[in-house]
From TrEMBL:
Similarity comment: Belongs to the protein kinase superfamily. TKL Ser/Thr protein kinase family. Pelle subfamily.
Organism, scientific name: Papilio xuthus (Asian swallowtail butterfly)
Segments for region (Disordered): 110-130, 157-180
Name of this protein: non-specific serine/threonine protein kinase
Residue stretches of biased makeup (Low complexity): 160-178
């Protein structure tokens, strides 16, 4: 794997670790052999781009087609155990012994040196940049995978003590930190799939299997490993944009009933692909526009969608430590299974939210997403917080109840939310008069629930983000409605 293919989460965690105490400078200057001038340039460029300096270093070094195994060895020389642990899921298992060696050394040292004054407790004590690559790696032929390592150090010697320590790795009882444990588990749950398998699964990208096209590529129906799947074939896979996109899509690994599962990804072929669970009910967008040949959604189905999406979002927003903000909640990204159970898809714009209890929002350099679903504070001031998703959810609720277009240039007030608020100001205006025309006046009509859902929509789309409810609150509100039995099936 090349440096530029590092999964987003791994890259991010490495940046966090190496930005700390400016450890990236040691990596760049001592181990990657960049000159002080180059190091300053990297720092300057990172500042200009509002990027982590480690990320900028990886971009520069990655341009030389360096591989993650090379980075692993440099971090080994730095004795940076947390960073090594972070890379464990993406390097060949033969390299893991290097980490064991450090862990053993650390546990021995920490037992014998009670008074050790360790500046960076997570990192190995001391630093010896001249530790050679162990002979076992050279014997195992890994040197072939690392074309640049020999030129970095001109290695010829092995280190037999290292080899024997490594062989004792089973005695190592030092446990990785829980953070990295978790990270490793999460990343390893997304399997890499061969492009050829996906080509076969979709009958050579047959037009008859095309489910739709979005901004990032085409989506095909397929059968992979005996399961129905939807394969997203990404456009311009060679651009760094898509690599980032894939990384961000890895955030989809959060498992929940209301989150569309990502089954796998493929990076080796002509286009990068993402493999999702196939959702036979199509997107909410298509269902609201009655573009699928299915009958209009009933109120029990609409309730199920409102309830399920609220449940999925509150799960993301209440992630321990850092909420996850989806950033692009809209009917096109809400997919329905055969039972109309909604699942939130498309994590291409998902972001880790503000960290820590004292931080309610963060300022971002660029706004992404779909304009009619985004609140003013994000569009104008670039304030990103879970309240952005709450606003988008509110707009979706207004669409769910009315099936009116979210943006209509023929209306005097184009945005649906503003249009409804304008109507609401009229005397004796009843929100239920906006109920989806496809069910209004039929046996499926439910004016009372229509009003409730629209009230929730209006509450969630309040101008002041502090006045919007938390998704947990919305979920509870929906959950506590007294509805007939059929609504809960
Ligand atoms: N897992 C899936 N199961 C069934 N259909 C899907 C699945 N994922 C996407 N689709 C269909 O494929 C179409 C294109 O999806 P895609 O996510 O690429 O675009 P979008 O969300 O509509 O737009 P954009 O990505 O530009 O926001 C959608 O209309 C959706 O109906």
């Amino acid at each position: 794997m090349y440096i530029y293919e590092l999964p987003f989460e791994v890259n991010k965690e490495l940046c966090r670790l190496l930005d700390n105490d400016e450890e990236w400078k040691e990596l760049a200057g001592v181990h990657m052999k960049y000159s002080p001038f180059d190091v300053n340039e990297i720092e300057r460029e990172a500042k200009n781009k509002l990027l982590s300096p480690t990320a900028q270093l990886f971009i520069k070094w990655g341009q030389l087609n360096h591989r993650v195994e090379e980075l692993f060895i440099l971090l080994y020389r730095m004795k940076h155990v947390p960073a090594l642990r972070c890379l464990v899921p993406v390097v060949d298992s033969r390299f893991h012994r290097l980490l064991s060696k450090h862990d053993i050394t650390r546990s021995i040292k920490s037992k014998s040196a009670d008074n050790d004054n360790v500046k960076r407790p997570a990192k190995m004590e001391g630093s010896n940049s001249s530790i050679p690559i162990p002979v076992m790696l050279m014997q195992n032929g890994i040197s072939n995978m690392l074309p640049n390592i020999r030129s970095i150090e001109g290695l010829t010697n092995g280190d037999s003590s290292l080899q024997s320590s490594s062989n004792n790795s089973s005695n190592n009882d030092t446990k990785p930190s829980s953070l990295n444990d978790e990270l490793i588990k999460k990343i390893s749950t997304i399997p890499m799939v061969h492009y050829e398998e996906l080509k076969a699964a979709t009958d050579n990208w047959s037009e008859s299997n095309l489910l739709g096209k979005g901004g990032f590529g085409q989506v095909y129906k397929g059968v992979w490993k005996l399961s129905a799947v939807a394969v997203k074939r990404l456009l311009n896979s060679d651009s760094s944009n898509n690599r980032e996109l894939i990384g961000e899509m890895c955030l989809n690994q959060y498992r929940h009933d209301n989150i569309l599962p990502l089954y796998g990804y493929s990076l080796g072929g002509p286009e990068a692909c993402l493999v999702y669970q196939y959702m036979s009910g199509g997107s909410l967008e298509k269902r609201l526009r009655c573009r699928t040949g299915h009958p209009p959604l009933t109120w029990p189905q609409r309730y199920k969608i409102a309830h399920g999406v609220a449940r999925g979002l509150q799960y993301l927003h209440t992630m321990e430590g850092t909420p996850l903000i989806h950033g692009d909640i809209k009917p096109g990204n809400i997919l329905l299974d055969q039972c109309i159970m909604p699942k939130i898809g498309d994590f291409g714009l998902a972001r880790k939210g503000p960290y820590g209890e004292d931080r309610t929002h963060m300022k971002v350099s660029r706004v992404h997403g779909t304009r009619p679903y985004l609140p003013d504070e994000y569009l104008r001031s670039h304030y990103l917080s879970p309240a952005v998703d709450v606003f988008s959810y509110g707009v979706v609720m207004l669409e769910l109840a009315t099936a009116l277009p979210v943006m209509d240039r023929t209306r005097t007030v184009q945005l649906l939310r503003d249009y409804i608020i304008q109507l609401q100001n009229r005397p004796a205006f009843d929100l239920a008069s906006l109920e989806d025309r496809n069910i209004q006046g039929t046996v499926h009509s439910n004016p009372a629930l229509c009003r409730e859902i629209m009230f929730i929509g209006l509450h969630c789309t309040r101008y002041d983000r502090h006045e919007r409810p938390a998704m947990l609150h919305v979920y509870k509100q929906l959950d506590s409605m007294h509805l007939p039995e059929e609504y809960y099936n």
